[in-house]
Every structure is written in C-alpha cells, then in structure tokens.
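pls design
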C-alpha cells in the first residue's frame, strides 16, 4: 500500500507504518546477517537531552521529493515512531528540489508556513533572524556523535550560534558503466581531471557519451561545476569575501569543461536534477555525476535489464584537479526551525529524535547511503561497507568544501548560489555562448551585485 500523498501532505495509516518499518528492519537484519550488525564505534556516553513538546503541539514539515524510495519510507517510519512516542502529529509536505528554496524564503518573509523546512546549502544565512537558535541541540548531538565535520559547521553556524541543524548531503560521485569504460580502453575511472577527460572522450567515441547537468539544477548542476571550479584553483571569493572569480584559474576550469562538453549527450544545457538519472537508466549516457540514486533505482528494479545494469554500475569520487586535493561540493541539506512556529520545543525534539542513532542509521540503510552524514560517528554505519559500491559516498561530506569557498557564508553566498552564477558561467563557456574569459567576467559582475563592499 505504501505512503499516500495528496494536497495536504503525507498521511500515515497504521498498516503503512508497519510496512515501512518492516522494510527498514529487514534491511538492518540483512546487514546483521552479513556480520555487519548495528555495532560500530561506541557512541560517547552522556545524559540524553530531551525537549518537552508544547501542549497540543502539531508540526508541519517541508521536505524534498524523493529520488530514493527507501529515503522516504525510512523517514516516514521514524516520524511515525516520534508521533507514537510523543503524541505530536506531524504533517510532511514534499516539494521538488528547485521549489524548496523559494518557498522557504516566502515563509521567512511573511512569517508563516511550515515549522521546519529542510533547505539547501547556506539557505539559513539568508534570513538568520527568522530562525530559532538550535545551539543547545547541535551541541548535544556533536558531543554525543563524534563531532560535526567542518563544512556542516560552517553551514549551520552564524556568529557563534547554530541557525540550522545539519542533516546530511546527497553525496555526488562519478557514476559510470564499467563495461563501457573497459570497452573504451580504461580498467578503472581515472582519479585526476586530465585522465577523466580522456576517459570521457574515449567513451564518447564508442557511442557512450557523458551527461552532466548544465541547467539550473540545485543538486547536479551546482555540485559538479563548483567541484571543477575549485579543482583548478578558481573561487567565487577569497577569504575576505572579495570577488575573485574572474581569474586565470577560473578560465582554465572553463576551458576544461568546454572540452568535456564535447563528450556530452545533447540537451544538457536544460537538464535539471532528474534528467541525468533518466538518461543514464535509459542507456543514453555512460557517465555522469550523481548521488547513489541511479544505482538504487537499477538495483531495486524488478526489471532484469535494470538489475543487470546495476551490476555494471560503478562509482568513483570526483576527480582531483591541478590543486592536488579533493575539492568537492555536495547537495547539503539542513533543518531550519522558523520563529513563527508555535511549537519550537516540539520541532527541536523531532529533530533530536530523527538524528539519534536508533533512527538515523536505519534511515541511511533503507536508502542504501543516499544521505551522507554530517556527524563523524556515523562513519561506522555498516551501510558503507556492506556493498563496495556504497563506499565512495561515505566520506563525501567529510571531504566537502562549502558554497562560497573560501569566504564566509552569509546572504551573499546564498544569493549567488540561488542565482546560479557558477552554473550559468560554465554553461555559457561550455556551449560557446561566451568565451571562457567573457563568461568569467560576466560571472564577476553578477557576483558583485551580492558581495557588495
């Protein structure tokens, strides 16, 4: 039967919850049967924190639409556990990835709407005065679960306070068909940008083009273009938030992608987040950058052809460029509790409950690692090693840089990303609409509107 969705959000029946809970439990039992049960590194012992929900509390939550069914099933099952434990009713509305940011901005501006919104990247820094201080909750979770990674801390904190609660990221890796790569003369996917370009060129010559989103895709467009920009030493701003995107390093990155674009399938200039998934699963492309959702879809399909494809899918971390170290950006989400909420304690208790190990690890397992953790203790979740194809996603958040690198997060960094300054720059240079130098200069002018001195 599954979970029902209508205009009033996700509603639960007892049978739905039992079904989803059973699925999550079965997955965990499978891990245990493989000798990878719910053990891991011991979590620091400390007094558990609880927030007492307000009398009669009800919560409305805005969250992204699923790409992985297990993500939604696991999250909804945990939500029902929370309701059964606390009596707090929870309504979950799901929106497309591109619609989350404008809806959150409207809620902040008008002072009404969902109690909790799961937004992207540094969205909380656009309206910090509209958000509930989550410092006590974030401090508790960090102390209990091995500490927060660096980029999540930057995303969640402003002026020493936590204005958002990091939840994790849909890690972005290179997804490719191994047999097609082998056919092109490569045993494994090269780990450097030069080698990666050569592999894509060779695969394209064999009729297996690449495909990377160059439309205004919140996840796939932003993540790979920022990763390549940084790989060549380009940056939007320097440490003091001076706009430096119009640089020789940026031009080199744009020239690189202009060559890479020649290996792309048609239409990538308008691709949003679902497009590369569909193209890969349809056999139209042989390599892309994506979360584990492509592999999940093929592996969980009842179609024998899809199951065969799953065996041929491999993952690799984003290639390292001339700077000589990982320079990855991933689709990061964090929870924002809005001050207009009548039930801030209930909201904080909900987030605490969902981030505790008893809920968080089974949720990751149900989605086969679709969301990578921001807390170090969850590195030991057996989901990362039960299947070697999951492992490249394990350290994506640990190795992640932040939007607006290497400057400080704030309204400017959030607004520049919301305006797709970097993505559009790469699209213009790749397609030949602008030369690399012209595209970098235009990006500089656009960025300067937000990073005002």
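designed seq:
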């Amino acid at each position: 039967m599954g979970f029902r969705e209508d205009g009033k959000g996700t509603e639960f029946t007892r049978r739905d919850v039992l079904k989803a809970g059973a699925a999550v439990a079965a997955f965990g039992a499978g891990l245990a049967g493989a000798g990878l049960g719910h053990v891991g590194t011991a979590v620091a012992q400390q007094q558990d924190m609880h927030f007492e929900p307000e009398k009669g509390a009800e919560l409305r939550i805005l969250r992204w639409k699923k790409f992985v069914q297990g993500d939604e099933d696991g999250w909804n099952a945990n939500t029902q556990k929370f309701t059964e434990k606390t009596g707090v009713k929870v309504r979950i509305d799901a929106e497309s990835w591109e619609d989350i940011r404008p809806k959150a901005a409207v809620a902040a501006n008008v002072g009404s709407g969902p109690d909790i919104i799961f937004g992207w990247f540094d969205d909380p820094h656009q309206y910090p005065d509209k958000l509930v201080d989550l410092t006590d909750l974030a401090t508790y979770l960090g102390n209990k679960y091995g500490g927060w990674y660096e980029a999540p801390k930057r995303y969640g904190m402003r002026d020493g306070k936590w204005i958002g609660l990091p939840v994790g990221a849909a890690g972005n890796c290179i997804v490719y068909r191994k047999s097609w790569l082998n056919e092109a003369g490569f045993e494994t996917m090269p780990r450097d940008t030069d080698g990666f370009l050569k592999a894509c060129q060779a695969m394209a010559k064999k009729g297996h083009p690449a495909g990377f989103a160059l439309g205004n895709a919140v996840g796939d467009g932003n993540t790979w273009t920022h990763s390549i920009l940084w790989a060549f030493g380009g940056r939007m701003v320097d440490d003091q938030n001076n706009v430096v995107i119009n640089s020789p390093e940026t031009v080199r990155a744009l020239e690189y992608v202009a060559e890479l674009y020649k290996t792309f399938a048609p239409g990538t200039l308008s691709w949003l987040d679902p497009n590369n998934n569909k193209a890969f699963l349809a056999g139209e492309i042989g390599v892309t950058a994506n979360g584990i959702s492509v592999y999940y879809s093929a592996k969980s399909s009842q179609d024998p052809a899809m199951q065969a494809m799953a065996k041929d899918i491999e993952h690799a971390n984003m290639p390292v460029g001339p700077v000589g170290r990982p320079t990855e950006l991933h689709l990061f989400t964090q929870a924002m509790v809005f001050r207009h909420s009548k039930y801030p304690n209930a909201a904080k208790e909900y987030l605490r409950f969902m981030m505790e190990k008893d809920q968080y690890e089974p949720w990751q397992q149900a989605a086969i690692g679709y969301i990578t953790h921001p807390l170090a203790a969850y590195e030991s979740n057996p989901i990362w090693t039960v299947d070697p194809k999951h492992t490249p996603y394990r350290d994506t958040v640990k190795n992640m840089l932040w939007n607006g690198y290497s400057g400080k997060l704030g309204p400017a960094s959030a607004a520049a990303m919301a305006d797709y300054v970097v993505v559009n720059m790469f699209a213009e240079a790749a397609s030949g609409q602008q030369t690399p130098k012209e595209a970098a200069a235009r990006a500089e002018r656009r960025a300067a509107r937000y990073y005002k001195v």
